[in-house]
Structure formats: structure tokens, C-alpha cells
Amino acid sequence: MDDKRKVRVSKYLARHLRHDPARIGLSLDARGWADTGELLAAAAAHGFPVTRAELEEVVVTNDKQRYALSPDGARIRANQGHTVPVELDLPVSAPPPVLFHGTVPRFLAAIRTEGLRPMARHAVHLSPDRETATRVGARRGRAVVLTVAAAHMHEQGHVFHRSENGVWLTASVPPHFLDSPH
Which one is the CATH code of 99-177: 3.40.50.410, 3.20.170.30, 3.40.50.1000, 1.20.1300.10? Predict the structure, then answer.
């Protein structure tokens, strides 16, 4: 499968496993899992046929590891980033001393006042390294990377989870836990 097709399939999965499964008649269970066969059938019925091999290739090769298949391959889910109600059942984890958040300049004034909020998602997404945060921020323009005093937040009672693909999740980041952007 060429890179263009991989991107199209990945975006299709994101839309329907994270944001709008009902659009194609798909249902997710409480933990965000969908039946793989039902997903493939629904995609085909709605004009976007995906083969089982393509699906597996996108799951395995996606650079951000956005998706996971159950051990038996019968179910698939997005690892995080949902705007539909799901409980990923991720264990609470102690974060490293600092984490990073990529954004763009136009959001800085609000972030300095309100901190980081999940917006339409269930949690704020934080990156384990500056490079990843830079790539995340660059999706919307010139990237600005904020440093989050994650260990200090954790000491103050904030809860962190780490998704299967290494993204750190927390309910919000108050502004006093943020360092100046780089």
C-alpha cells in the first residue's frame, strides 16, 4: 500500500473510531473497541472499502501508533483522542519530570490564562519529548512547544495516564505548571 493510501485509511479510522462511529453505523463498546469485521463491512457499505491487510498494515506501521487490534484481531480501537464517550481503562501512571505540549501561537494567550484544557477530547494530550510535541503543533502552523512540570503536577494530586502509544493524558494543565514556550 502506498503512503497516500495509508494516510487516507488512517484518517478514515480516526474519524470513525475516535469521533463519529455512528456516521457509518458502527458502534463502539464502553472501552472504545469496535468489531473489526463490522468496521470493514461498514466502510465498504459507505463507499470506502478497506481490506483486512490494509487495516492491519495501518495499525502496525502508523508512526504514532494511533490504533490497536485486540490479540485475536477481532476488535480494533483508537488508542486515545476520542471525542465520543469511551473509558480506555488506562492505569494511573507517574509521569516523568517534564512533558511537552505542541500548539500554535494563536492559542498562547488563552493557554496562559486558562492552562491546557481537553477541548472536545476527553483529556489533554502531552508528549514525552520536544520533537513529538513539535510535530503535533506543526500540524496547524508554526509550532510552539510548552513544557509541563508533570512530576510537580502529579505531586499536587493531578492524575496521569499513559496510552498504549506513549501519549500522556491528564484532565487539564493549570497555567502555573507551564513553562514559557520554546
Answer: 3.20.170.30
Each domain of the chain, given as residue ranges in start order, spans 3-78, 99-177
Cα–Cα distance, 148 to 56 (Å, whole number): 34
The predicted-structure confidence for 55-110, as pLDDT tens digits, reads as follows 999 999 987 889 999 999 999 999 888 888 888 888 899 999 999 999 999 999 99
Considering the entire predicted model, what is its pTM? 0.73
Residue the block writes with cell 483486512: 52
Give tens-digit pLDDT for 55-66. 999 999 987 889
Query: What count of other Cβ atoms lies within 10 Å of the Cβ of residue 133?
Result: 25
Residues near 181 by Cβ (< 8 Å), separated by ≥ 6? 103, 108, 144, 145, 146
Distance CA 100, CA 20 (A): 28
Q: Which CATH class is domain 3-78?
A: mainly alpha
**What's 181's DSSP letter?**
P
Angle at 140 between CA 3 and CA 31, to 5 degrees: 70
